Amino acid sequence: MGNQIIFLSFILVLNSLQGLQAAVQYDVTNNEANTPGGAIFTNQIGVEYTRQTLESASAFIWRTFGQTNEADRKNVQMVRVIVEDTSRILDVPAYATGNEIHLNTKYIASYTGDVKREITGVLYHEATHIWQWNGNGNGQPNIGNLTEGIADYVRLKADLAPSHWQQPGEGYKWDQGYDVTARFLDYCNSLREGFVAELNGKMRNDYNDNFFVELLGKSVDQLWTDYKTKYGK
Ligand SMILES: *[C@@H]1O[C@H](CO)[C@@H](O)[C@H](O)[C@H]1NC(C)=O
């Protein structure tokens, strides 16, 4: 009897410890299994693979951002993927809003090539939007393209960059967004290991181009010039 009570309270303690570390839930819904893109999603990608990819992408993003403690991360309990025709709202491969990723079945249907790898890369990019800091909306106008660049940086580091991307040194300005900014951030990170993690951390409440000076001792424009010079572009 006494042993049972001790055992029971041990289990209760364990449960409450797990409660403190509530695992993030990942949920995937295919709303258009009967459309061409929805069927390709089912046959070549699948709900379970997408769920697992969200889980490993999230772990990868936390590592890339150096967020070993839950307290460093955004407070997100559940990430959802909805597979649907987004072209009525946004004609893009996918978009993220709040804790939801909307994957476009029209894009899946039109994609030629390894659609599973492509959608895996898209999921890494969109999952980054869910977990990254965005300066609380401060730091316009650069912040939007910078967050897109960080999302593509994560995709690049996960070895999921598509072949059509701009190469290192290409592009006409650092805040062009997406692949151009991702390659530039990769250069900045080579100057200081953990740069992107620190930059993201600084963007928790605010954003300012001066963050580049604080972390690398040079203005972002000077860094862009150095980067172009390094690649002879
Ligand atoms: C953001 O990126 C787009 C596309 O590359 C570009 O046209 C625009 O000028 C950029 N915005 C800023 C504020 O740099």
Automatic annotation (TrEMBL):
InterPro entries xrefs: Uncharacterised_BSP
Top-rank taxon: Eukaryota
Keyword Signal: yes
One matching Pfam family: BSP
Entry keywords, A to Z: Signal
Keyword Chaperone annotated: no
Signal sequence region: 1-22
Protein name per its UniProtKB record: Plant basic secretory protein (BSP) family protein
